[in-house]
Design a protein that fits this description.
heterodimer; A: Rossmann fold; 2 domains; four-stranded mixed beta sheet; 6 helices; B: about 475 residues; alpha/beta; Rossmann fold; six-stranded parallel beta sheet; 23 helices; FTHF_cligase-like_sf (chain A); LUD_dom (chain A); Lactate utilization protein C (chain A)
């Protein structure tokens, strides 16, 4: 009996009016390098990232060095009147938290309100953050809490998506299990086309930009 | 989902008299058309990208077998499983088998048109599972027990008041009336479902052969919670969604959101590559992809191959005056508007959907906004031709056309007939210059008057003028 796989591939080939491609033809396809037009961009990438990200209700605060991360989170917490409980990505394990804070490195639970994570890269083109899942970057931190704070170094910002893919390809682990491109807080316009933030994912995404 | 495209005419009449629907459609149309135009204008390369996207999709279709095999190998290498389904029944069986193996009780779903095409929800529910749509719009119409039909904004036809009533009836909480309160209530109700789910099902906007990744775009993040929190993630996608590389996907992503909702990008674009890996502390334990053919491999061989370029952005329906007047439900199946009027007859049969290709006014706006330049009016005309050849059109129409053809191929006879008809019509409308009622054309004259001709045919007038010179 022909398997569904063989039947479908056979039908595809029949419709294309040919048999399976030979090795030389396959090698040629594999060697194809896409050369699509990349939209022109002449703005400073850091400025563009900030402008685009803020245009979709994300917020950005710029600091000089990593020493100021915890104080910046504390200021954000106070401004939004949040509890001192935070899910922190393993990559930021070494941060020292003041007394009264409860931090953990586990996946975000159903009541998680605040998370602090690193990101893999950011793209100036659309003002988007790129996250690569892994032991130190649980994916739930990006989607479950109401408030997601992201540490981003200015040098991590690339011009276009193709530049971010080049970085992903260079990773030892290759393509991450989950690659999340996040362009601001979760939103919906499903009720009468009215934009409402915080549909299912974070209501606020706040970037701490270093450098 | 059950096909009800035969009821198009009847449903259209109801739709046109539904005041809520009409106000919702007006609002939606104005929004989508304006924002798409604005985003396209901001990107000087937009037209160039459309041309390249068309070329890319044509390249993929020409080598579809290769890219599918390559994609499958990459998914397997990442620890995922690829299943192939020839038709809807086979696809349902595969998904059901995975769900049963995991003793699934709750299944969460991100919006996926292919899962509607294969009738997945009904099959899972019939097997005792609770199926929860997690896109807010889909959730609303699931509560309303309506089939989905809008692709981009599934609840576009629901007013806030109707949503208030639906939530009050299903959530057992005091009724909310503001948009933020309604969205928050849905957020709270669905949060528990995400965490309780055994299986999460999403679609795939693209499948990337280079990396074995499935891609979904959402604004809400519901698709991500769906695939992250369940133990098993199942992707249902049709075979033409494969693209060679990440860079190729980027070209299409640059067009997708701009064409769909008039955004520069959707809030979330997620590439999923296999199941949870060693050391990961979250993410699904199993990752499955069900590749659905359901007629597409055949479509590849005929004159409708171009339809397989479609990336499901919905721009064609957002710009269609017919869709804008009757809404998605009138079309009676999963895919509405111009793209649906081509796809539905091809997937479900010409005789099941006679009215759809004929409802088109051939104004061409759909083709002018399609990001991958599908010649939708040409394909619709082709379907009409096929319907005529297979004698699916009404006998009176076929006889009238045969008579017209007989005359049209005999110019003298045609002009003779035309002269008589023009004079007769001029006589009929001589008092007011318009005709109130006309035999055989009641469909037109019931709702408006027919302007009466002056009594001379165009050719007579042309000849007369030329003679004067």
């Amino acid at each position: 009996m022909t398997s569904a796989r063989e039947a479908i591939l056979g039908a595809v080939r029949a419709s294309l009016g040919r048999g399976a491609l030979d090795d030389a033809q396959r090698a040629e396809l594999d060697a194809r390098i896409p050369a699509h037009t990349r939209p022109a961009q002449d703005e400073d990438p850091v400025e563009r990232f900030k402008r685009k990200f803020e245009s979709r209700s994300g917020t950005v605060v710029r600091i000089d060095s990593a020493d100021q991360i915890v104080a910046t989170v504390e200021a954000y917490r106070a401004a939004h009147d949040l509890k001192k409980k935070i899910a922190v990505g393993g990559a930021l394990r070494e941060l020292k938290w003041p007394r009264g804070w409860h931090k953990h490195h586990d996946p975000a639970g159903i009541d998680e309100a605040l998370s602090l994570t690193t990101c893999f890269s950011a793209v100036a083109e659309t003002g988007s953050l790129v996250f690569a899942s892994g032991p130190d970057n649980p994916i739930t931190h990006n989607f479950v809490p109401d408030d997601h704070i992201v540490v981003l170094e200015a040098k991590q910002i690339v011009d276009r998506f193709e530049d971010a893919w080049a970085l992903l390809r260079k990773r030892d682990a290759g393509m991450p299990r989950a690659t999340n491109i996040v362009s601001g807080p979760s939103r919906t316009a499903d009720v009468e086309q009215t934009i409402q933030l915080g549909a299912h994912g974070p209501r606020r995404v706040h970037v701490i930009l270093i450098g | 989902m059950e096909i009800r495209s035969r009821e198009f005419k009847q449903r259209s009449v109801f739709a046109i008299h539904d005041a809520n629907l009409q106000s919702a459609l007006d609002r939606a149309r104005d929004g989508f058309i304006g924002t798409r135009a604005a985003r396209a204008a901001e990107l000087p390369e937009f037209e160039q990208l459309r041309e390249e996207a068309k070329g890319l999709k044509n390249h993929i279709l020409e080598h579809l077998d290769h890219y599918l095999e390559k994609y499958e190998a990459a998914v397997t290498a990442a620890g995922g499983h690829v299943h192939w389904a020839r038709d809807a029944a086979e696809a349902r069986r595969i998904v059901l088998e995975i769900c049963k193996r995991h003793d699934a009780k709750t299944v969460t779903k991100g919006k996926s048109m292919i899962s509607e095409e294969i009738g997945l929800n009904e099959a899972l529910i019939a097997n005792g599972m609770e199926v929860v749509e997690t896109d807010l719009g889909e959730y609303i119409i699931q509560l309303a027990e309506e089939p989905p039909s809008h692709i981009i904004a599934p609840a576009v036809h629901k007013t806030k008041k109707q949503i208030t009533e639906l939530f009050a009836a299903h959530h057992d909480r005091p009724p909310k009336t503001s948009v933020p309160d309604l969205v928050n209530e849905a957020r709270e109700m669905l949060r528990g479902k995400f965490f309780a789910a055994d299986v999460g099902i999403t679609g795939g906007n693209f499948l990337i052969a280079e990396t074995g990744s499935s891609v979904i775009v959402t604004n809400e993040g519901n698709g991500d919670l769906t695939q992250t929190l369940a133990r098993v993630h199942i992707v249902t996608s049709s075979i033409e969604k494969v693209v060679p590389t990440l860079d190729d996907a980027t070209l299409l992503l640059r067009l997708l959101a701009r064409s769909a909702t008039g955004q520069e990008t959707e809030t979330y674009t997620t590439f999923s590559t296999g199941p949870r890996r060693e050391g990961d502390i979250d993410g699904p334990e199993e990752y499955h992809v069900v590749l659905v053919d359901n007629g597409r491999s055949k479509m590849l061989g005929g004159r409708f191959r171009e339809m397989l370029r479609c990336i499901r952005c919905g721009a064609c329906m957002n710009h269609c005056p017919v869709y804008g007047s009757v809404g998605g439900h009138a079309y009676g199946w999963v895919y509405p508007g111009p793209m649906g009027s081509v796809l539905t007859p091809l997937i479900k049969g010409l005789d099941n959907s006679y009215d759809l290709p004929n409802a088109c006014t051939l104004n061409g706006r759909c083709a002018s906004v399609c990001p991958v330049k599908i010649p939708l009016p040409d394909l619709l005309r082709e379907l009409r031709h096929m319907q005529h050849q297979r004698e699916l059109s009404p006998p009176t129409q076929r006889h009238a056309l045969a008579l017209w053809r007989f005359a049209a191929t005999r110019p003298k006879l045609y002009h003779f007939g035309e002269r008589i008809a023009t004079r007769a019509l001029a006589l009929a409308g001589r008092t007011k210059g318009r005709i109130r009622r006309m035999p055989f054309a009641a469909g037109w004259t019931d709702t408006r008057d027919l302007p009466a001709p002056t009594g001379k045919t165009f050719i007579d007038q042309w000849k007369a003028r030329r003679g004067q010179k």
